[in-house]
Design brief:
single chain; alpha+beta; eight-stranded mixed beta sheet; six-stranded mixed beta sheet; 18 strands; about 30% helix
Length: about 350
C-alpha cells in the first residue's frame, strides 16, 4: 500500500479509509467491473423494505418463499428427463385436465414453502379445488396475506422443452369474514404483488409490488436471482400478436375482424401455448396477447385469479394495458375461485387497436 501511495492510517483489513475524496481507488475495487452484478433479489427486497419504516418483514418473507420454491422447481424442470418426472401422473385436476408429474411437484413445493411463513393466512392454487387455510388462520395481524398461484403454467409443453412458468399473486387477508373465499375473491387492483417465473433458456423472475416492474435472472453459479432490469417498460407498439388461431372460426366476429386487419397490415404471429412464455416475449418486445371467448368457452378459458389478474398487474405496471373484452381486467369482481375470463393484454397502442374492433 505504501508503494502505491496509500495513506498508512488504514481502515478495516488494512485498506485505506473510504471517506477521503483525494484517495486513490481501493485496489479491491479495480477487480470488479460495471458488468459484475451484485444486486440479488434478497438485497433488493431488503432495500425496498428500508424505505418503509413501519415494515415488519412479513411481506419480504413471502417473496423469499416464492424465490426458494421456484429455484427448486427450476432445478426439477431442468432435470425432469434425468429424474423421470416427465409425463402424466394419471390423475385429473379440478378442471378435469390431465396432471403432469411436475404440476404436482411444483404445487407441493410452493404450498410447503408458503405454509412455513407465519405471514400467510391462505394459499390458493389452480391445481386445488378449494383454498388452503394455513394453521392459526385467525391470528389477527400475524397472518396478513393471501397467496394465489398457478404452479406450472404450460406444463403440457414439458416434453418439447418449450418455455413454461409459475405465476403468482399476493393479496391482503380480509379478516372481516370467517369465510376464506372472501379473502381470495378480491378484484385485481387490490393485489399488493404479482409476478411470474419463466423456466426457459434461463430462469427469469419478473415481479411488481406496485412500483414498477423488476426483472431478475437466476445465476446458477451462486444460487441467487440477480437484478437485470429495474424498471421494465413494454414498448408502446409492435406489429405482433399472440393467439391460437386454430380456434379463429369460433371466435366472436369482432376478434376475427381484428385478425383479418392484422393479416393485411404486416403483423407477425407468435404463439407458444404457454401464457408465461407468450406474455414474457410481449413484455420484452411489445405486441398483443389474445385469448378470446370461444363457442366452447364463452366466458374465456384462462383463470382470472391465477393467470389474468397477476399478468394484468405486471403489464399495467410496465406501461401496457389489460382487458377482459372491453372491461379492464383489474376492475373485474371475482365470483368464483376458479373463474375463467377472456384475456387481452400488451402494448397500449396494440390493445387500443383490438378494442377499436370490439367496440
Amino acid at each position: 500500500p505504501a508503494q502505491a501511495g496509500y495513506i498508512q492510517a488504514a481502515g478495516p483489513l488494512g485498506l485505506p479509509p473510504i471517506d477521503g475524496t483525494d484517495l486513490p481507488m481501493n485496489p479491491v475495487e479495480t477487480l470488479l467491473t460495471e458488468s459484475d452484478n451484485l444486486t440479488s433479489l434478497q438485497s433488493y427486497l431488503l432495500s425496498e423494505e428500508d424505505k418503509h419504516p413501519d415494515a415488519t418483514g412479513r411481506f419480504t418473507w413471502i417473496l423469499s418463499a416464492i424465490s426458494l420454491s421456484t429455484k427448486f422447481i427450476s432445478d426439477k424442470v431442468r432435470r425432469a428427463r434425468l429424474q423421470d418426472v416427465l409425463g402424466s401422473l394419471g390423475s385429473q385436476n379440478v378442471h378435469d385436465e390431465s396432471q403432469q408429474k411436475l404440476d404436482v411437484i411444483a404445487d407441493e413445493a410452493l404450498i410447503r414453502c408458503l405454509r412455513s411463513r407465519n405471514s400467510v393466512a391462505i394459499v390458493a392454487s389452480e391445481e386445488n379445488e378449494e383454498p388452503i387455510i394455513v394453521e392459526n388462520y385467525n391470528q389477527g395481524d400475524q397472518r396478513p396475506y393471501v397467496v394465489l398461484f398457478d404452479p406450472l403454467d404450460g406444463s403440457s409443453n414439458l416434453d418439447t422443452c418449450c418455455g413454461i412458468g409459475t405465476i403468482f399473486s399476493v393479496l391482503e387477508h380480509d379478516r372481516r369474514s370467517n369465510n376464506p373465499k372472501e379473502s381470495v375473491l378480491q378484484p385485481g387492483y387490490r393485489q399488493v404483488a404479482a409476478g411470474y417465473v419463466i423456466y426457459g433458456s434461463s430462469t427469469v423472475l419478473v415481479m411488481t409490488t406496485g412500483s414498477g416492474v423488476q426483472m431478475f435472472v437466476l445465476d446458477p453459479s451462486i444460487g441467487a436471482y440477480m437484478l437485470v432490469n429495474e424498471n421494465v417498460q413494454i414498448p408502446t407498439a409492435h406489429k405482433s400478436y399472440s393467439v391460437n388461431e386454430a380456434y379463429i372460426e369460433s371466435f366472436p366476429k369482432s376478434y376475427q375482424n381484428y385478425l383479418h386487419y392484422a393479416h393485411k397490415n404486416g403483423y407477425s404471429s407468435r404463439y407458444v401455448g404457454s401464457m408465461v412464455a407468450d406474455v414474457h416475449r410481449i413484455l420484452v418486445k411489445g405486441g398483443v396477447f389474445l385469448y378470446p371467448p370461444t363457442e366452447k368457452a364463452p366466458e374465456g378459458k384462462l383463470r382470472l385469479l391465477y393467470e389474468a389478474n397477476p399478468m394484468a398487474m405486471i403489464i399495467e405496471q410496465a406501461g401496457g394495458k389489460a382487458y377482459t373484452g372491453t372491461q379492464r381486467t383489474l376492475e373485474l369482481q371475482p365470483t368464483e375461485v376458479h373463474q375463467r375470463v377472456s384475456v387481452l393484454l400488451g402494448s397500449s397502442d396494440e390493445v387500443d387497436k383490438v378494442l377499436s374492433f370490439l367496440e
